[in-house]
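C-alpha cells incoming
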C-alpha cells in the first residue's frame, strides 16, 4: 500500500500542488549552487597541486599531513607519510568538513528538496511512493552529525592557525598582511560562525539542563548560540562560498596568474 503523500488518507487532489507562487525557484537555485561547488571542490581535491602560495595554504588542503605536501605547507609534520604520494592530501582532510556539512540539519533539508525531491517544497507532493525517513542505510549515518561537529571544530582551529601564520611573508617573517590574509580571515570567521550556529552545538552547550538558573554560564552560552542558530542557513551558504573563494584565490597565486595585493 502506498504511504506518505500517496497514502489513502491524503486528500484526493490530482495536481501535484495548488500553490500559485514560484515555489520551484529555491530548490533550483540550491541545486545549481550545490552542483557548482561539488564540481569545483572535486576538481581541486583531486588536482593535488597549486594549493600553497607561501604563506597561504588552501583550506581544502589544511592541515597537509602527507609526503605529497609541497615544501612549506606541512606545518604539523607528515604523520601520514605512509600514504602514497599520488593520493591528494585534500581527500583525507575533506572527509571531516564534508561529513559535517552533509549531515548538517540545514543542508539535509536543502539537498533532500533540491536533489531527491523529498519533498521539493512545502505542500508539494513528492514523487516517492514510500517514506522511511533516516532509519535505513545510507541515511541512518546522518546520526553521526554530532561527531562530525567535534571534528569540524578541530578543523576550524587549524584554519585559525593558518590565518595567524598568514601574517608572515614568504621568508616566514612576521609583519606581513596581504589580500590573501584578509580572505583567509573572513573565511575562518564565517566557518566558526557556521560551526557554532550548528544545532548540535546548541544542544551540547545547553541541552539536557533542567534548570537554567543553576547553570548561568551555560545559559548565556546557549542563548548566544541560539541567536546564531537563527542565521544557520545564511551562514551555511556564506561559509561554503568563502571556502571556495579562498581556495580559488590561492590557486590563482600558486599558478602565478595574479600576484597578492600587499598592504604591508
Amino acid at each position: 500500500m502506498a504511504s506518505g503523500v500517496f497514502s489513502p488518507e491524503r486528500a484526493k487532489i490530482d495536481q501535484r500542488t495548488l500553490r500559485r507562487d514560484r515555489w520551484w525557484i529555491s530548490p533550483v537555485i540550491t541545486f545549481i549552487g550545490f552542483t557548482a561547488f561539488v564540481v569545483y571542490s572535486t576538481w581541486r581535491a583531486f588536482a593535488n597541486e597549486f594549493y600553497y602560495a607561501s604563506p597561504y595554504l588552501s583550506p581544502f588542503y589544511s592541515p597537509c599531513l602527507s609526503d605529497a605536501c609541497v615544501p612549506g605547507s606541512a606545518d604539523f609534520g607528515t604523520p601520514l607519510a605512509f600514504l602514497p604520494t599520488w593520493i591528494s592530501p585534500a581527500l583525507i582532510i575533506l572527509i571531516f568538513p564534508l561529513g559535517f556539512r552533509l549531515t548538517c540539519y540545514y543542508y539535509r533539508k536543502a539537498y533532500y528538496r533540491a536533489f531527491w525531491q523529498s519533498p521539493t517544497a512545502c505542500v508539494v507532493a513528492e514523487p516517492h511512493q514510500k517514506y522511511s525517513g533516516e532509519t535505513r542505510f545510507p541515511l541512518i549515518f546522518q546520526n553521526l552529525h554530532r561527531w562530525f561537529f567535534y571534528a569540524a571544530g578541530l578543523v576550524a582551529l587549524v584554519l585559525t592557525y593558518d590565518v595567524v601564520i598568514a601574517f608572515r611573508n614568504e621568508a616566514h617573517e612576521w609583519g606581513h598582511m596581504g589580500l590573501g590574509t584578509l580572505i583567509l580571515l573572513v573565511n575562518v570567521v564565517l566557518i566558526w560562525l557556521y560551526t557554532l550556529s550548528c544545532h548540535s552545538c546548541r544542544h551540547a552547550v545547553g541541552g539536557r539542563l533542567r534548570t537554567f538558573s543553576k547553570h548561568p554560564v551555560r545559559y548565556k552560552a546557549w542563548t548566544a548560540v541560539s541567536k546564531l542558530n537563527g542565521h544557520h542557513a545564511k551562514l551555511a551558504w556564506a561559509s561554503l562560498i568563502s571556502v571556495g573563494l579562498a581556495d580559488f584565490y590561492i590557486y590563482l597565486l600558486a599558478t602565478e596568474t595574479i600576484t597578492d595585493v600587499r598592504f604591508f
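note: Residues 17-254 form one domain.
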